[in-house]
Amino acid sequence: MKCLIVEDSIIVRRILGSVLKKLGVTHILEAGDGKTAWHYLEREPVDLVITDWNMPEMDGLELVQAIRKHERTSHIPVIMITIRDRQDDVMKAYEYQVNSYIVKPFSLKSLKEKIEQVIKATGEK
Amino acid sequence: MNPQQMERILERINELKALFIFGQRVIPFLEELFGFVQNIVPLMQDMNRSLRESTTKMPRASSQLNDVTRATELATNEILDILDDILFKLGEVQSSLNQATDFHRKINRLERKLDRLLDMDPETMGTPEWIRQAKAVQEEKKTLLKALRKTFTRSLKQINDVKENASNIMFSLQVQDITSQQIAAVNHLIESVQERIEQLLNRLEAPVASPSENEPVSVQPLPFDPQASYTRDDHRQQTADAIFSRSASVENPTFLQEEIDQLFQGNISPDSSPSPASNANREKRSSGNE
C-alpha cells in the first residue's frame, strides 16, 4: 500500500509516518504542500492520501478538488487532517468528497481508527 | 481745516494704507494656512483610523499570544504527566525484574537441592522422607515459576504501556503545528499594523527606513487559521464524524441547517441518528417540494 502524506508541518508528517508504519504501510510519500503532492500524484499511483487543509502554494481543499476532477486519481480515498473545526469547514470538506475528517490535535486512537476505516472501505470496493 | 488737522488726517490715511499693505501680505499666508488645515484634516482622520485599527488589532494579537502560551502550557503538562507515568511504570518494571532475578536465584537453589536428592544413594532414594522432600522441592519450584511468569506478564504489559505513552508524547507535539498557526496569525496582525503606520509616515513625508533596507529579511507568510486552538475536546471530532456519517447515511446528503446548528451547539448528541422529521424534510427537498 502506498500512502501520500501532505502536510506543511514536519512534526505532524513524522507523527503520521510513524502511525502508518505501525499499521503496516510500507511505502510512504511525503509532500509539504498541495502542489508538490499533485506532482507526485501525476507521476505515480497512490492508494491513500492524508492531507492537511492550510498549506502554502495549493491548500488541501484545492488538492482534493484536483484529485476528484481527474479520472486517474478520482478514486483515491482522502483523509483530511486539519485544525478547522467550524461547521461550514466540515460541510465543505464533505461536499468536496473527502472520505474522512480528523480534527487537530488528534489522538493515536482516532487516527488509527480513521485510517483503518478508510483502508477497510477501500479494500471492500 | 487748519494744517494740524490736515496733518492728522494724512497720518490716519497712512495708517490705513499700511494696514491694507499688511492685509495684502497676510492674505496669501492665511490662504496657505487654510490650505494646510484642509490638507491636514484628512491626514488627521487617517491617523485616527490607523490608531483605531491598531488599538483593535493589538488586543487581538495579545489574545492570540495568550492562546500560544495556553497551548504550550497544556501540551507541556500533558507531556509531564505522561513522563511521570512512564517513570512510575519503569520503576515498577525495574522492581519486577529484581523480583524475577530473586525468583531465578531461588529456582536455581531448588534445582541444586533436587540434584543433590537425585545424587543420593539408591537406598535413601524412594524412602517416604526422600519422596516428601522431592515433592516439596518440585512444588516450591512450580510456585516460583508461576510467580516468575506472572512477573514477566506484568512487566510486558507495563512496557507496552510505556510504548503507548511514548506515542502519546509524540501526539502532544502537535502543539508545534497549532502554535505556529497562532503565531502566524499574530504576525499577520502585526504586519498589517506596520503597513498602516508606514503608509501614514509616508504621507507625513517622514518615511521610516524599513528593516529590509538594512538587512534583508525574507519571511515566508505561513497559511494559518486564526482560530487555531490546542484543546483535548472530543466533541469537535465527534461532531465532524457525525456530519460525515449522517450525510453518508441518507440518500440526499444535504443537511438541515437546524440539525447542523444543534450539533455544533451540542444540543443533540453527535452519535444520535437523524430524526425521522429531518429525513422527511430531506425527501421533500430532493423531490423539489420545498
Q: What best-fitting shape of chain A do the alpha-carbon axes yield?
A: globular
Overall 3D form of chain B: rod-shaped
The pLDDT mean of chain B sits at 81
Kindly report how far apart the N and C termini of chain B lie. Answer: 105 Å
Radius of gyration of chain A: 13 Å
**Pair with the most extensive interface?**
A-B, 30 and 39 residues
How many strands, what sense, and barrel or not for the largest sheet of chain B? none
* Strand order in the sheet with the most strands of chain A: 2-1-3-4-5
Question: Could you list the spans of chain B in which at least 5 consecutive residues all have pLDDT below 50?
Answer: 273-290
Q: Give the beta-strand count of chain A.
A: 5
Order of helices and strands of chain A: EHEHEHEHEH
Percent in helix of chain A = 40-55%
The biggest sheet of chain A, with number of strands, parallel, antiparallel or mixed sense and barrel status, is: 5 strands, parallel
Return the average pLDDT of chain A rounded to an integer: 92
CATH topology of chain A: Rossmann fold
Terminus-to-terminus distance of chain A: 15 Å
Poorly predicted runs of chain A: none
Q: Name the assembly state.
A: heterodimer
> Roughly how much helix do the residues of chain B carry, as a percent range?
over 70%
Radius of gyration of chain B: 44 Å
